[in-house]
Amino acid sequence: MSIFIPAEWAPRRALWTAWPSDGSLWRENLAPAREEVAAMVRALADDGAGDNVRVLATGEEAMASANAALGAAATVLPEPFGDIWLRDTGPIFARRNGEAVAIGFRFNGWGGKYELEGDDTLAGRIAERAKTRFIAHDFVLEGGAVEGDGAGAFLTTRQCLLNPNRNPGWTEAKAEEALRAALGAKKVLWLDEGLAGDHTDGHIDNLARFVGDARVVCQAPGGDDPNAEVLDDIAHALAGMEDAQGRKLEVVRIPSPGLVQDEDGGAMAASHMNFLIGVGTVVVPVYNARGEGAVEALKGVFPDHRVIGLKSNAILSGGGSFHCITQQEPRL
Fold first, then answer.
1. Is the pLDDT of residue 222 over 90?
2. Which residues belong to the active site?
């Protein structure tokens, strides 16, 4: 069986995201989160020159709010969901034996932490809206837990994929077998731990990202970074890896945000790795002044894109950032 999943920078039909809709979840951060999502959508749409953005919203108030904020920058679609984390609840689009398909998995609220109505069926409904055949697999996997290079290599973490709160009894061998069958993985590259305060149990899209052939980006810690040791371990591990073609990975490090605290003083899982590669624009989440350094560093990584930093503190209060709330639909 042939399964091909293009890299995130490949040409695409659409970019799917969602509008913060549930006031009981977002509370005082509902309005600022909507402002941040709107800024992301407008940047990616780029006045019609960029992404074809499709935004899901739940309820009449959210639909009206999204349409008013986004205007012609996006198509707003009514769809019930629990929350906006489409990277994890949406499908992964692929080409399977020459046919465009949307691949889905069981979703259990990141190991039973946040099980919200509508999230576990959203992947199939997005596939239906995309008029793409849906293929469901009977194991738990979130899209943010795997990072592909478009050539058969996938990065992931042991903390997430081997966590008994997802698929009890999984070993590396069982996980790799599942990724080969479902995603066409030729080689799985394992990192260990994720960021402090990350309720996803170490999603890879907060840690390391493919940005080209045999090229990855990860973070370098600042002086107050609670993840300093983890980030150095990641860079060291990546430097010793090869992709599915046997090419040694080139590792590029950019500044981390350092310590970003919640209202109780705890460390939040803030990461510049949650950037989103659009058709012509790379959107980088920033949380403080250190974001300027990350944006400048990524301009060298993406010389053919406009690279901009956008505030993401309100979205982060919900547990993620721009990459977490989106899913690309490539041209297949």
1. no
2. 324
